[in-house]
From TrEMBL:
PANTHER family to which the protein is assigned, alphabetical: GLUCOSE TRANSPORT TRANSCRIPTION REGULATOR RGT1-RELATED-RELATED, ZN(II)2CYS6 TRANSCRIPTION FACTOR (EUROFUNG)
UniProt-recorded name of the protein: Zn(2)-C6 fungal-type domain-containing protein
Record GO terms (molecular function): DNA binding; DNA-binding transcription factor activity, RNA polymerase II-specific; zinc ion binding
Domain of life: Eukaryota
Organism whose genome encodes this protein: Cryomyces minteri
Keywords from the UniProt entry: Metal-binding, Nucleus
């Protein structure tokens, strides 16, 4: 009969899957989960087939990968059980974010960055409503995707710098935030595939696609960026955002943010169409936001409306000529367009300082 003590000793010598992947000593003492997995918030398993030792890698990156893979596999499994996530009953058990890439402090930092730096040119979110959406992340796949896509979009911003204590294992360096944002982005994309947002689109669906576009634009992946921008404009049309009647009923605050979202897509599509020689889908078919709709945001909204007016003249005719899809451009027509563009902005801009810089720069570029 084999010696039971020697068998126990042999069992302890084998590292669990996570410790083996991270190339660290497994402190299991013959029990599960091992101390390393408990501390890192990982599931302790012994499923992998032992292989020959290889070169050591970055343990911080490996543990982040393990956490994300385990968390996303759970989320995707739950998503697949609820193909129509937004309209389905609350998910049970709740989404698990324990040990994942996004803690509440991380989400708060990203939301704060959006409202501090991005909101004037992208005034599409309501701060209180964002907090409510965060509270629904555990029960709604669509809420989860919106918040994670927002966080990914912020982390990938060139000037975004997360506090070191929020990065996995204190991982530092100029690319740490972008790398983490890319991981969150890929996770959000995987989870979103688990429910049918195309057949039952909402405003959240449109915003999520826009944040995906912004993320891939910052990553210089322009084909993927264009795909998600076109996805956002298509979803916007599916829910009638291009029709004025859509805004006549419902919550006033939500309607105003939805109207702004349409015009943001309008401007973004035109700017990208000129940059990348793409066609247009959205047109000036609804009224502009009213400057007085929120007294606390008069300056920001004024700057946003100036931005819309800058891009309005660049319609299907111009873009068709620009893309060489049509001919017949005359000197007189171009002169009128030039005058229209030159007079699009007043001498004094009622806007934030950053908006004024963007507006003048955009005017010169156009």
């Amino acid at each position: 009969m084999p010696d039971s003590s020697s068998s126990s000793s042999a069992a302890v010598k084998r590292a669990c899957d996570a410790c083996h992947r991270r190339k660290v000593k497994c402190i299991g003492d013959g029990t599960r989960p091992c101390k390393n997995c408990t501390a890192a918030g990982l599931t302790c398993t012994y499923n992998a087939i032992p292989q020959k030792k290889g070169p050591k890698g970055s343990r911080a990156k490996v543990i982040s990968e393990l956490r994300e893979n385990q968390r996303q596999s759970q989320l995707v499994a739950k998503a697949q059980q609820h193909a129509f996530g937004f309209d389905s009953p609350p998910l049970s058990p709740a989404f698990s974010r324990t040990g994942g890439l996004l803690c509440m402090d991380m989400i708060t930092s990203c939301v704060d960055y959006f409202f501090a730096h991005m909101y004037p040119t992208q005034p599409i979110l309501h701060r209180v409503r964002v907090g409510e959406t965060i509270g629904q992340m555990d029960t709604s796949i669509e809420a989860y995707c919106l918040v994670t896509s927002l966080c990914a979009y912020m982390m990938i911003q060139p000037n975004m710098s997360l506090p070191a204590n929020l990065l996995p294992d204190g991982e530092m360096g100029p690319g740490a935030s972008t790398a983490l944002g890319n991981a969150v982005l890929q996770g959000a994309l995987r989870v979103r595939k688990g429910y049918n947002y195309v057949e039952s689109p909402t405003v959240w669906s449109v915003i999520t696609s826009f944040f995906f576009f912004g993320s891939f634009f910052c990553l210089d992946k322009h084909n993927t960026a264009w795909f998600h921008l076109r996805e956002a404009t298509t979803l916007a049309e599916l829910i009638g955002m291009h029709e004025e009647a859509t805004y006549s009923t419902g919550d006033i605050a939500e309607s105003s943010r939805t109207r702004r979202l349409y015009w943001l897509l309008f401007v973004t599509e035109r700017a990208y169409a000129l940059q990348r020689h793409r066609p247009l889908t959205l047109h000036a078919t609804i009224g502009l936001p009213r400057i007085d709709e929120d007294p606390a945001e008069t300056v920001e909204l004024s700057g946003f409306i100036h931005l819309v007016n800058l891009f309005k003249p660049f319609d299907d005719t111009f873009v068709g000529l620009w893309n060489k899809a049509r001919t017949g451009c005359t000197t007189e027509w171009l002169a009128r367009l030039q005058d229209q563009l030159a007079n699009a902005l007043p001498a004094y801009l009622e806007s934030t300082e950053s908006q004024a810089v963007d507006l003048r720069t955009s005017q010169q570029w156009l």
